[in-house]
Protein 1
Amino acid sequence: MKQVVRKQVFFFVVALFSGLSAINAQDTYKIGDGSRIWVEGTSTLRDWQAEVGNFTGTITTDGTGEVSQVNLSMNVKSMDGGRGPDMNAKIYKALHAEEHPDMTFTGQKAATSEGDLGVYGTLMVGGVSKALMVSAMGSLDSGVLTGEHAIKFSEFNIEPPSALFGTIVCHDDLLVKFELNLVK
């Protein structure tokens, strides 16, 4: 009889911990194929855009399904402004690519606002970090997040790229945009 009770207690404890593990399960989403990150800006000559070619990232949720961690790394030398290698070299120089080859975003805390996903975190560009809140439209369940966030070169102590002996200069304001396809 004691042995039967012990087995029942054992199975109850195993079932309880299995249930708690399922409740507290974390999910990790990776940035998948077809995702895009790019920067838009203006200059004294024309509007411009630079696409980030190589980037990786993950979004981790806690047991309740809320975002608990966001990690994103973007390779500076993979950026392409579409105007050839000389202009790309100016981008790399402005962003201090030799000393800081990656731009990173690490989110520590999540907030939800009107159905959108908001992540508080730190963006590091050219070795300078800035705390900010990034919002995204979409959902983890749909596997698609889109958004944009305004930043300035000056916030990261970056001198905007210029050409033709300073007659063409990028303006300070930038818009970072993203379309992320997530894979569990």
Note: Residues 4-23 have pLDDT under 50 and may be disordered.
Protein 2
Amino acid sequence: MSAFDQERLLQVLLAPQISEKATWVADKHGQVIFRVTPDATKPEVKAAVEALFKVEVTSVRVLNVTGKEKRRGRITGWRKGWKKAFVSLKSGQEINFATGE
């Protein structure tokens, strides 16, 4: 964990991804989903989650989400793409965003 700059670790995680699918994944597989910076790596995400939430991470999977095409009349545009990380926690541990623990 000391291999990474503490300032960088605070910037890697942008926000938790809270949705119906995210809560289902958390209950079924013990994973938490985060929005992360587009240049974040798996070891950085693991170190950031362990440092910020004081939990043990077993694995990290990342996924690039492509932006959707949006139309307004004849004009088409694109939403920005983003990156999300599926973080698997050690069994028996959890991150509760409602209470902040």
Note: The longest helix spans residues 42-53.
